[in-house]
């Protein structure tokens, strides 16, 4: 869509990066890492499943953390039984955590990854299985590697940029018109009120 405006490649990629930045997409790894920090501060025993579950229920009920009712890094629009990226990534995260002396923190991540889908199922009417996604661990890894938070989204996007460029080339070769997103208001029409009467 941005390419169709006739802008350059740099602006197009910057716009694509910006579309990933929010906490419901590429920024989810930042939120997941912050959420786990919050859980660490509020849980006294990392091995107490009931204490962890109770706090996860509070997160879902918008009582604690950012009060949005979301457990970040859990669930995916496409993957339901398991996120294959999560499964592959987990073994590398475990070895990195051991190398850096963060086994206890990794165990807490494991506990939350195991318990969160159960807590979500108990709280919400979910029609499909829920699983941890790749964002669950990536913020933790970036933090271990001392990567600044500002680079989390660009790192998430690196693998996508080749595909974005391919789409851009296709658009430049095959199309020559602007794409305009449609918007249809569902609000009822109101009579105009003069400014001095408002």
Automatic annotation (TrEMBL):
Q: What is its EC number?
A: 2.3.3.16
State the GO CC annotations: cytosol
Sorted alphabetically, the keyword list is: Transferase
The protein's annotated pathway = Carbohydrate metabolism; tricarboxylic acid cycle
Single Gene Ontology BP annotation: tricarboxylic acid cycle
The record's section on InterPro entries has:
Citrate_synth-like_lrg_a-sub (IPR016142), Citrate_synth-like_sm_a-sub (IPR016143), Citrate_synthase (IPR002020), Citrate_synthase_sf (IPR036969)
GO MF terms on file? citrate synthase activity
SUPFAM superfamilies xrefs: Citrate synthase
Q: Name one Pfam family in it.
A: Citrate_synt
Family indicated by similarity? Belongs to the citrate synthase family.
Name listed for the protein in its UniProt record? citrate synthase (unknown stereospecificity)
What organism does this protein naturally occur in? Lactococcus lactis subsp. cremoris (Streptococcus cremoris)
């Amino acid at each position: 869509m941005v390419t169709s405006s006739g802008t350059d490649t740099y602006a197009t990629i910057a716009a694509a990066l910006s579309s990933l930045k929010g906490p419901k997409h590429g920024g989810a790894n930042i939120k997941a890492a912050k959420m786990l920090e919050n859980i660490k501060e509020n849980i006294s025993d990392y091995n107490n499943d009931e204490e962890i579950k109770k706090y996860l229920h509070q997160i879902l009920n918008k009582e604690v953390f950012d009060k949005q009712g979301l457990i970040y890094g859990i669930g995916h629009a496409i993957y339901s039984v398991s996120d294959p990226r999560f499964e592959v990534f987990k073994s590398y995260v475990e070895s990195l955590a051991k190398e850096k002396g963060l086994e206890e923190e990794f165990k807490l991540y494991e506990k939350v990854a195991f318990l969160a889908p159960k807590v979500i199922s108990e709280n919400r009417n979910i029609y499909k299985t829920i699983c941890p996604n790749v964002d669950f661990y990536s913020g933790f890894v970036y933090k271990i590697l001392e990567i600044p938070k500002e680079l989390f989204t660009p790192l998430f996007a690196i693998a996508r940029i080749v595909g974005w460029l391919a789409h851009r080339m296709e658009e430049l070769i095959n199309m020559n018109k602007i794409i305009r997103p449609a918007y249809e208001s569902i609000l009822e029409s109101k009579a105009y009120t003069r400014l001095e009467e408002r």
